[in-house]
Amino acid sequence: MTRVAILGATGSIGQLARDVVASHPGRFELVGMAAGTRVEPLAEAASQEAPWLRLRWLNVATAEARERLEALLPPAQKAGVEITVGEDGLVAMAQAPEVDLVVVAVVGFAGLAPTLAALRAGKRVALATKESLVVAGHLVREAWRGGKGELFPVDSEHSALWQLLEGARQRPSRLYLTASGGPFRTASREAMAQATVEETLRHPTWSMGPKITVDSATLMNKGFEVLEAAWLFDMELDRIHVVVHPQSIVHALVAWPDGSLTAQLAVPHMRLPVERAMLYPDGAVESVPALDPTTLGTLHFEPVDRARFPLLDAAYHAGKLGGTYPAVLNAADEIAVQAFLDGRIRLVDIERVVHQVLERHESHDAPDLETIREADRWARHEAEDLCQVLEGRSRVRS
Ligand code: NAD
Ligand code: MG
Predict the structure, then answer these.
(1) Which of 10, 64, 84, 107 for a ligand 1 pocket mutation test, highest count of atoms within 8 Å of Cβ?
(2) pLDDT below 70 — which residues of the chain?
(3) Ligand 1 in contact with 89 (CB < 6 A)?
(4) Which residues surround ligand 2, an ion (CB under 5 A)?
(5) Strands 240-244 and 174-179
(6) SS3 of 315, please?
(7) Element containing residue 77 per DSSP (H, E)
(8) What local confidence, expressed as pLDDT, does residue 77 receive?
(9) Closest ligand to 42 CA?
(10) Does the beta carbon of 271 lie inside 6 Å of ligand 1?
């Protein structure tokens, strides 16, 4: 029996992870769930009658959210359950002796501390929160490689690479991550400047949470994924490439020294990577509908238009500089994406915020967790200031 904690249990990936638990009777027990501040879906998930639900911990982001959660839970459901608040509670759950597998599927920087804690405590970690590897890849690697913990990628491209590279007898020459190109793959810069939140959230092939959907529209997500792949597969950034593939059927390709490429194909559904990570070393069976190659039609590949999607290069740049630059890249993006979702700035302003905050930053080499936290706080503050300036300007314009 694998005892599971799901961090980000009410999100798009968290929901899939709960489905995986429910569909493998006798294999998993769900012992912990964490969510941000939307407590209704958490209360609902915690109140289910199911043999696999053996809750010991719930976690929410604020004390106010805990109050609301407590009010929603029936007394029988609260018995024996500890409700914690914030990062300390996430960390405690991630490293608790009664947990075997931690699914990290919160959004953003919040995933870092529990990822490190779980790995250091020797847990199996199914990692969806790519931001953990972006902001502190060296610390995550150290915690992972230096101990008994295991790390399984949930991101679809990285799950595909994992499958392609398993048992490889040679070191690959290059890795390719595919990108659908998002809703603005063929849009002009002018059209992107006018993009509404609604258009941006209409992703052509994947259904995901709002932050990653915006990041997919700017290709910031693909930039994060390049950094994620570098840490996961020990590969230099120059050997990791991005190729636009609008059908999202091929998820990744590996180039081998003999000149050949191998590719992984599957329907675009996150159930497969989530289930693969949670079931390892067993393979998943019938996670997603099997692909029939005779019905695939044309699969199209094209290079990224780097002028229209400058955040991809910003990620390579921050990754090569290293130090606290990647943490700053992530923090500036988190703030700018939220400002865009709140209708305060334009989609194309996200790149301005990210570039300017990176430019102002003075990095620290080989940062420890506290130094990364400081850089994160600094970058959020700078990004917020810039968003306020941009917001003021767009008011003047309109
Ligand atoms: P989502 O917005 O649907 O869900 C996020 C979850 O995290 C929610 O349960 C929310 O309550 C919780 N949360 C937010 N802030 C929190 C905090 N401070 N403490 C605890 N919980 C908090 O997001 P998602 O699409 O499921 O993405 C989750 C992560 O997985 C992201 O890092 C994303 O990049 C990654 N990912 C997602 C997909 C996808 O298809 N959705 C694919 C690859 C990677
Ligand atoms: Mg991905």
Answers:
(1) 107
(2) 396-398
(3) no
(4) 155-157
(5) parallel
(6) helix
(7) helix 75-78
(8) 87
(9) 1
(10) no
Q: What domains lie within the chain, and their CATH numbers?
A: 2-153 (3.40.50.720)
Q: Tell me, in angstroms, the distance from the centre of ligand 2 to residue 157's CA.
A: 5
* DSSP letter, residue 366: S
269-293: b or e for each residue (b if 16 or more CB lie within 10 Å)?
bbbbbbbbbbbeeeebeebeeeeee
Taking Cα atoms as reference points, which of 300, 257, 248, 261 lies closest to residue 176? 261
Residue 218: predicted pLDDT:
98
The first and second tokens of residue 28, run together, are 């998993």
Q: How far is the CA of 231 from the centre of ligand 2 (A)?
A: 15
Tell me how far the alpha carbon of residue 326 lies from the centroid of ligand 2, in angstroms: 18
CA dist 318 → 12, 275, 374 (Å): 28, 32, 17
| Region at 373 (left for phi over 0; alpha for psi -120 to 50; beta for the rest) | alpha
| C-alpha closest to that of 308 among 348, 352, 248, 354 | 348
